[in-house]
Amino acid sequence: MTPQRYAYGDDPSQVADLYLPPSGAAARGVVVIIHGGYWRSTYGMELGVPLAQDLVRRGYACWNLEYRRAGNGGGWPATFDDVAAGIDRLAVAAAEHGLDLRSTTALGHSAGGHLAVWAAGRGSLPTGTPGAGVPVVPLTAVVSQAGVLNLGEARELGLSDDAVVNFLQGPEDPQRYRLADPMTAVPLGVAVYAVHGRKDSSVPLSQSASYVAAAQAAGATAELTTVPGDHFALITPGSRAWAAVVQLLETAADTTNPGPSSGD
Q1: Rounded Cα–Cα distance for residues 123 and 132 (Å)
Q2: What integer pLDDT is reported at residue 256 of this predicted model?
Q3: Is the pTM of this model over 0.85?
Q4: What value does the CA radius of gyration of the chain take, rounded to a whole number of Å?
Q5: CATH code for the domain defined by 4-253
Q6: What confidence category does residue 22 fall into, taking pLDDT thresholds of 50, 70 and 90?
Q7: Would you state the pLDDT for residue 259?
Q8: Does the N-terminal peptide bond of residue 174 adopt cis geometry, omega within 30 degrees of 0?
Q9: CB 44 within 8 A of CB 66
Q10: Nearest to residue 97, comparing CAs of 21, 45, 32?
Q11: Sheet bearing 4-7, strands edge to edge
């Protein structure tokens, strides 16, 4: 299966690949895949390719998103601007291929989980801040795979050689941390399904657990599912952890935006 590439900017990292179900088949839903790698340029959208290939066979349309990361022009604010613009670019692809965007789930692994949850709440960001504005493509649910969902804790723990400080590039800017941290954005208006491996040594389970607890306390829809395996089992099709992710995506696919579809 050969995806179609779309650019949403001039930088080589400002691209997304669209994967479509077999010709003539209606999509079960649309999944925006946001890869992880602690926001560093060492890792790229290739991490999302096996996920997209598996999900397309299950009837989903997939939007495998790349973005600038720390080390290739990313970090604050570029990464946030890219994720917002990259998701909104999906509207163009949907119009060209007749995709219905009323069920659009963000699927993010590790740092991508952070960006997926952040993107789901960007409509409430203050005017003029990175990624703020009314989304062209509103997300209807998020599935976070071992997401870095508590930036304050991640910073205190110094996860992955102080990846949070490296990413946000402003350790003494509290406003920047507030705007970037999913913990300060609860409650979101969409469901967040957090799934985490019980043997994850890269992102502590507390990253998902603390977010879900805070979201539930604030009245949001949020669930935590723990699964066998390590950090990477969640992005390994065929694993028990991946099977749990697929189940959560099926649940998320039933969530729709009440607005008009892209073809209306």
Answers
A1: 6
A2: 77
A3: yes
A4: 17
A5: 3.40.50.1820
A6: confident
A7: 55
A8: no
A9: yes
A10: 21
A11: 4-7, 15-19, 61-65, 30-34, 104-109, 141-145, 191-197, 222-227
